[in-house]
Specification:
Elements: E1 2-12, E2 56-58, E3 64-66, E4 74-84, H1 88-110, H2 129-135, E5 141-146, E6 151-158, E7 173-177, H3 196-203, E8 206-209, E9 220-221, H4 236-255, E10 260-265, H5 267-278, H6 280-283, E11 286-292, H7 313-320, E12 324-325, H8 330-338, H9 346-357, H10 369-375, E13 380-381, H11 382-394, H12 405-412, E14 429-434, H13 442-448, E15 455-461, H14 468-471, H15 475-489
Parallel strand pairs: 7-8, 7-10, 10-11, 11-14, 14-15
Antiparallel strand pairs: 1-4, 2-3, 5-6, 6-8, 6-9, 12-13
Helix pairs in contact: 4-5, 8-10
Length: about 500
C-alpha cells in the first residue's frame, strides 16, 4: 500500500487570510514529506482553481499554507490520506484520465462540428413524477404518510390505467419500491408501453410507488430540517423498519384491501428482506414479494461503486460529509439537457450507467437518457452509503455498525450489529436476476436463493444488467408479462 495525498479546495469567507488552523485541518497534521509534493504525490504542487492568483506555499512540518487568493474569500486546504493498492502511478493515471474525460466533453461542446446538433429536449426533463404520469394520460395522485420516527414520505399512485377507466371496482394493489439513489420516477420514465408503473395500471392493477426517506420526494420531517445533521442519520435499516410499514399500512387503509403485492428493485429488495423477516405482522400483509435484481450481499459485485468499501470509516465522512449524498440537482439537469441531448453524446451519457451497473447497451432507449438523468440520482444519506460500504467490507447482511461497542449497545442492546436472517421471511417470493449485472452479481444471488424459505419462482436473464429491470426495451415481454401471470396465480 502506498500513501498519497489529495488536496481539496474549499471556498469560505473567513475574517482574514492566513495559514489553515488546526480546526480547518480537523485536528490532523499532514505527514512530513518533501516540500512540493501534492496530488497523488506528483512532483508538482496542486494548481489553484480558476480565479485564484497563487496556489500553495509549504509551512512547517510539510503542512500547506495559503499565500494569497481572490478578494473577499480564502481557500482552505485539507490534507486527506488516500490508500491505493496499485500505488501512486495508478492514482496519477486515474486523475489524468478524469482530466482527459473532462477536457473531451468540454472540447466537444465547444467544437463547431457539434454546434446546432442538439436533439429536441424531451419535455419530461422538466416534469416531476406527477406531471409525467398525467402527461401520458394516466390518473395521478400524491399521498403523504408520516413514519413513527417523524419522516414524511410521498407516495405516488396510478389508480387505474387508460384502458380500464370505466372499471370503478376494487383492483389488486401493487406497491413498487425503488432502489438506491432512486425515486418513484424509475417506474414511469420510459414510454408507457415500457414503464412498469404504466404497464401494471393498464393491466388492471392499482399502482402505488414509494419514495424512501431522503430522496427528492421525501425530504420532510415533523420536527427536523434537511439542514440538520440529525435528519440524515439513517440508512436502509430505518427504511425497512419504518418506511415500509408506514407506506403499506397507509395503502391498505386507503384502498380497503388486506394485502398488497410488493415489487422491489435493488435496495428495494434489501429493505423487503429485512422488513418481512423481522416484522411478521407486516409480512402477513404481503401477498407476494417480487424481487428484481435482489441484493442482500455484494461479495462478488464488480461495480466501481463497491470501491467505496475501500475507504476507511473514519475518512468516509471527511470526504462526503454527514448529510445527503448525490441529490437531484441543477448541475445534472443542465448536463442532461445540454450535454446528453447532443446526438453524438447520448451514448456517452448512457455508458455512464453501464460502467456502474453492467453492459447491455442495445437494451437502453438512448432517446430517454436525458429523462433518466434528470430524475436520477435522487439522493440518499451519507450514512446509507456508509452502510453499503460496510456490507462490501465485512461481507455480512447486518444492521448499521455505529463504530464502537458503546454506540452499538445503545442502539441494539449488544456490542455488534445484529445480522439479518432472510430465512425468517415466509412471504411467497419470486426472483429475477441478470447475468450481466455488476451490482446484483449472479454469484451473490446464488448465495441468496437457498435462504429464501418460500421461493416460488426464479429466473435468470443472461443478457440483462442492473437497470434492464426498470428501463430495458425488452422488459415487457421478458419480465412484466411473467410478473402479471404470477400475480394472477396468487390472488
Amino acid at each position: 500500500m502506498s500513501l498519497g495525498y489529495c488536496w481539496v479546495w474549499e471556498a469560505e469567507p473567513p475574517p482574514r487570510w492566513g495559514p489553515p488552523t488546526a480546526h480547518a485541518l480537523r485536528g490532523r497534521t499532514a505527514p512530513k514529506h518533501r516540500a512540493g509534493r501534492g496530488l497523488c504525490r506528483t512532483s508538482r504542487r496542486p494548481a489553484a482553481p480558476i480565479g485564484c492568483t497563487q496556489s500553495l506555499s509549504w509551512g512547517e512540518g510539510g503542512a500547506p499554507a495559503l499565500a494569497s487568493g481572490p478578494p473577499g474569500a480564502r481557500l482552505r486546504v485539507r490534507a486527506l490520506r488516500l490508500w491505493t493498492a496499485a500505488g501512486e502511478d495508478q492514482c496519477r493515471m486515474k486523475m489524468q484520465l478524469l482530466g482527459l474525460v473532462f477536457c473531451l466533453v468540454l472540447g466537444t461542446l465547444q467544437c463547431e462540428a457539434f454546434k446546432g446538433k442538439l436533439a429536441a429536449v424531451d419535455p419530461e426533463t422538466n416534469m416531476n413524477v406527477t406531471e409525467i404520469i398525467s402527461y401520458w394520460g394516466f390518473p395521478s395522485e400524491e399521498h403523504y404518510v408520516e413514519t413513527k420516527d417523524g419522516y414524511i414520505l410521498c407516495l405516488h399512485r396510478i389508480p387505474h390505467g387508460r384502458k380500464n377507466r370505466a372499471d370503478k371496482g376494487p383492483k389488486p394493489v401493487v406497491f413498487l419500491q425503488h432502489g438506491l439513489l432512486a425515486d418513484s420516477s424509475n417506474w414511469v420514465t420510459n414510454l408507457p408501453n415500457n414503464s412498469l408503473g404504466f404497464f401494471l395500471a393498464d393491466t388492471g392493477f392499482d399502482v402505488w410507488m414509494g419514495n424512501s426517506r431522503g430522496n427528492t420526494w421525501s425530504r420532510r420531517h415533523k420536527t427536523l430540517s434537511p439542514s440538520q445533521d440529525e435528519f440524515w442519520a439513517f440508512s436502509y435499516d430505518e427504511m425497512a423498519k419504518y418506511d415500509l410499514s408506514a407506506s403499506i399500512n397507509f395503502i391498505l387503509n386507503k384502498t380497503g384491501q388486506e394485502q398488497v403485492y410488493y415489487v422491489g428493485h435493488s435496495q428495494g429488495t434489501t429493505i423487503g428482506f429485512i422488513a418481512f423477516s423481522r416484522i411478521p405482522e407486516l409480512a402477513r400483509k404481503i401477498k407476494m414479494f417480487l424481487a428484481l435484481a435482489p441484493v442482500a450481499s455484494i461479495k462478488f459485485s464488480t461495480s466501481p461503486l463497491t470501491k467505496l468499501g475501500d475507504i476507511p470509516d473514519f475518512l468516509f465522512k471527511d470526504l462526503f460529509g454527514v448529510k445527503q449524498f448525490l441529490p437531484q440537482n441543477a448541475v445534472l439537469k443542465w448536463l442532461s439537457t445540454h450535454v446528453c441531448s447532443r446526438v453524438i453524446l447520448k451514448e456517452l451519457c448512457g455508458n455512464a450507467f453501464f460502467v456502474l451497473c453492467g453492459f447491455n447497451e442495445r437494451n437502453l432507449n438512448m432517446s430517454r437518457v436525458s429523462v433518466y438523468i434528470t430524475h436520477s440520482p435522487a439522493g440518499t444519506s451519507v450514512q446509507n452509503i456508509l452502510h453499503w460500504s460496510q456490507v462490501v467490507k465485512y461481507h455480512k447482511f447486518q444492521a448499521f455498525d455505529w463504530g464502537s461497542h458503546a454506540k452499538n449497545y445503545f442502539h441494539y442492546n449488544q456490542t455488534y450489529p445484529p445480522l439479518y436472517n432472510v430465512r425468517d421471511m415466509l412471504v411467497p417470493t419470486a426472483v429475477w436476476s441478470g447475468g450481466q449485472d455488476l451490482l446484483a452479481d449472479v454469484n451473490d444471488v446464488s448465495i441468496l436463493l437457498p435462504q429464501i424459505t418460500n421461493l416460488v419462482y426464479n429466473k435468470l436473464i443472461p443478457e440483462w444488467e442492473h437497470l434492464d429491470f426498470i428501463w430495458g426495451l425488452d422488459a415487457p415481454w421478458r419480465l412484466y408479462d411473467d410478473m402479471v401471470k404470477l400475480m394472477s396465480k396468487h390472488l
